[in-house]
Write a structure and sequence with these properties.
- This protein is α+β, with helices and mostly antiparallel strands.
- The protein has a single domain (about 5-160), classed as 2-Layer Sandwich (Alpha-D-Glucose-1,6-Bisphosphate, Chain A, domain 4).
- It is about 30% helix and about 45% strand.
- The protein has three helices and eight strands.
- The chain has helices at about 20-25, 30-35, 120-150, and strands spanning about 5-15, 40-45, 55-60, 70-80, 85-90, 90-105, 105-115, 160.
- Strands 2-3-4-5-6-7-1-8 form an eight-stranded antiparallel β-sheet.
- It is globular, with a radius of gyration of 15 Å.
- The protein starts with 5 loop residues before the first strand and ends with a strand.
Length: about 160
């Protein structure tokens, strides 16, 4: 997947809430627009198995930069209270993986996003705009951390970092 428009992002959060509460929110993506500032819409296109595998959602994201991204995300793997993995297709293509681990009364959250931009203008600008796209991704993920902390618990949690 490595080409000039491919990206690998790793985001780590410490959320001051039990893993069950964090898991419940991450497993309810249709609710993300209620608490995650960058998520405009999560629309269930296809229901999956009872555990969530096979579900397909159309995801619409906005960012600090003046553009939106729309892509499909199909859930390919679930390990309850530990892993949610999916495959993106559309304006972004690749793999996203949430990993949760308990840390006392908090939850360690890691998000790995290995993705390739398919929009022609993004592919064209990628060699020079890579640092800006990375900054933008980090900002959107920070909005998620802030919203999730508000949603599931008190305290500030640790900031996102790559």
């Amino acid at each position: 997947m490595r080409d000039r428009a491919s990206y690998v992002f790793v985001t780590k959060w410490t959320i001051p809430a039990p893993i069950e509460r964090v898991w419940r929110e991450l497993m309810s993506p249709e609710q993300w627009p209620d608490w995650w500032r960058g998520v405009e819409r999560m629309h269930l296109v296809k229901a999956g198995e009872p555990n969530g595998v096979g579900a397909v959602r159309e995801c619409t994201w906005r960012s600090r930069l003046p553009y939106r991204l729309v892509f499909l995300m199909e859930i390919t793997r679930i390990e309850p209270h530990h892993i949610i993995e999916g495959r993106a297709s559309g304006e972004l293509e690749g793999i996203g993986r949430w990993q949760l681990d308990p840390a006392g009364t908090s939850t360690l959250v890691r998000y790995d996003w290995q993705v390739r931009a398919t929009k022609p203008w993004m592919r064209w600008l990628s060699p020079i705009a890579r640092p800006i796209f990375a900054w933008n991704h980090d900002a959107v993920m920070e909005w998620g951390r802030e919203g999730l902390v508000r949603r599931v618990g008190s305290g500030s949690g640790e900031r996102a970092h790559r």
